[in-house]
Every structure is written in structure tokens, then in C-alpha cells.
């Protein structure tokens, strides 16, 4: 009974994770999460159930799409944008930014892109594939104001989700390693584009069907174990 009940709990968690992935399928830069499980046993081959061993994001590349946003950028390849909010530093693949009053580029949750500030006199902004940011003003064109630098990690799957598309470094992920875009065989910056989430709706629907069937099979196992206990109790009383 415990083995079947723990299987039901595991599939319930699995369904919740898949449902959250589907709910964020249209969010730029979102990375689908996978729940992992492990067998519980007392040694040998006797299985005692299933235990949740955690959840981790999968940082597979999403498709790049034209956005038309004047400050939108996307990463084609590995790496993360380096962002900060207050004294907290974090990382994201979502490059949907807008200019704030202080010239910083911020996302919808207030995370500011590090390294770059847009002057008030800028009439247009351009970002090269290597992350170099230039602006046009009424006085001149093509003025260099900085460069977007990316971060990478030894174990990105160990990053800590902070909600939405933002992650924090952990001891297991290792510290950030700064990289410059535009180098041979490395990532590039795509200006005026956003990275679509890497959630496959078709694949997620198939995963839901599989999880539901597994849940139903475990539920039948609980019912069978309960019936066996009922019979055993009746025999004992007799």
C-alpha cells in the first residue's frame, strides 16, 4: 500500500510540474522544469516506494522570435543575462527589457541588466552580436556606451529559481563565469528578438497522459492492498 501511495504522490507532483510548464509556455526565456524521483528500498530488489529527489530546470535553447521591442535582446547559445535588484544579483535568459527613468534596462519584475545604462539623450539604441551597445543622439550616431556581458556556470541545472525566469547561483552551480558574446563557437546576442520558452506543448500533453495513467495504476494498487487487508482482518476475526 505504501509503495502504491508514494507512487500516487510522485505522479501528483509530476502533474503539478508539467502543468506549471504549460502555464508558462508563452513566457519569453522560460525554461521547463523536470521532477526527478528515486526508488525507496530496504536493500536488494524489494521496492518500498518512490521518493521525490528534486526538481531542476532544463536549459535547452528555445526558438528565437522577432519581438519589435526597442530594448529586447536574446541569447543565441549558452549563457545568462546578468541582472540585479537591490543588493541581490541573479541570472536570466529573458531579455525583455524596458528603459527605466534612471536609464537602466529592467524587466517586468524590476530586475536591472548589469553593465548598461541608456543616457537620457539617446534617440535610438543598437546592440551588436558581441553585446556592444551603441546609441544615436541628436548630436552624433553610433556612440559606444558599454557592453552586455554574459555569465555561465559549471552546473547550471543547480541554479536556484527565484520565480519566473530568474535564477540565483548556489554552491552546487558554482560561481558565475563571465563570458563575452560574439566569439567563435560561442553565444551571440540577437537584438530586437526574444527567446521563446523551451516547453513543447505536444510533449507536455503526452507527459500528462502518461502521469495520469501511472496515477490511476497506483490508485488501483492502493485499493487492492486495502481489500487484502480487509480480507486478512476478516480471517483473523473468524
What does this structure look like?
By secondary structure, the chain is α+β, with helices and mostly antiparallel strands. The chain is built from two helices and 18 strands. Strands 5, 6, 7, 8, 9, 13, 14, 15 and 16 form a nine-stranded antiparallel sheet that branches. α1 runs antiparallel to α2 (201-237).
Oligomer: single chain
Mean pLDDT: 89
Rg estimate, integer Å: 24 Å
- DSSP, total strands: 18
Distance between the first and last residues' Cα: 24 Å
Helix content class? 10-25%
Structural class: alpha+beta
- Please mark out the parts with pLDDT under 50 across 5 or more consecutive residues, or reply none: none
What amount of the residues lies in strands? 25-35%
What sequence of helices (H) and strands (E) makes up the elements?
HEEEEEEEEEEEEEEEEEEH
Categorize the overall geometry: elongated
Q: Largest sheet, described in full?
A: 9 strands, antiparallel
Instruction: Count every helix, treating DSSP H or I runs of 4 or more residues as helices.
Output: 2
Amino acid at each position: 500500500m505504501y509503495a502504491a501511495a508514494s507512487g500516487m504522490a510522485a505522479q501528483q507532483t509530476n502533474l503539478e510540474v508539467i502543468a506549471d510548464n504549460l502555464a508558462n509556455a508563452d513566457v519569453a526565456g522560460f525554461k521547463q522544469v523536470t521532477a526527478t524521483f528515486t526508488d525507496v528500498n530496504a536493500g536488494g530488489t524489494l521496492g518500498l516506494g518512490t521518493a521525490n529527489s528534486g526538481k531542476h530546470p532544463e536549459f535547452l535553447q528555445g526558438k528565437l522570435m522577432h519581438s519589435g521591442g526597442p530594448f529586447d535582446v536574446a541569447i543565441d547559445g549558452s549563457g545568462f543575462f546578468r541582472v540585479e535588484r537591490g543588493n541581490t544579483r541573479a541570472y536570466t535568459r529573458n531579455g525583455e527589457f524596458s528603459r527605466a527613468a534612471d536609464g537602466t534596462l529592467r524587466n517586468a519584475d524590476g530586475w536591472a541588466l548589469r553593465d548598461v545604462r541608456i543616457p537620457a539623450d539617446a534617440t535610438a539604441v543598437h546592440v551588436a552580436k558581441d553585446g556592444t551597445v551603441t546609441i544615436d543622439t541628436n548630436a552624433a550616431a553610433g556612440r559606444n556606451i558599454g557592453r552586455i556581458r554574459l555569465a555561465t556556470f559549471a552546473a547550471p541545472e543547480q541554479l536556484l529559481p527565484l520565480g519566473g525566469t530568474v535564477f540565483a547561483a548556489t554552491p552546487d552551480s558554482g560561481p558565475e563565469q563571465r563570458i563575452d558574446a560574439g566569439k567563435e563557437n560561442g553565444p551571440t546576442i540577437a537584438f530586437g528578438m526574444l527567446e521563446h520558452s523551451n516547453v513543447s506543448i505536444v510533449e507536455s500533453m503526452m507527459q500528462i497522459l502518461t502521469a495520469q495513467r501511472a496515477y490511476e495504476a497506483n490508485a488501483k494498487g492502493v485499493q487492492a492492498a486495502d481489500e487484502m487487508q480487509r480480507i486478512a482482518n476478516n480471517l483473523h476475526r473468524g
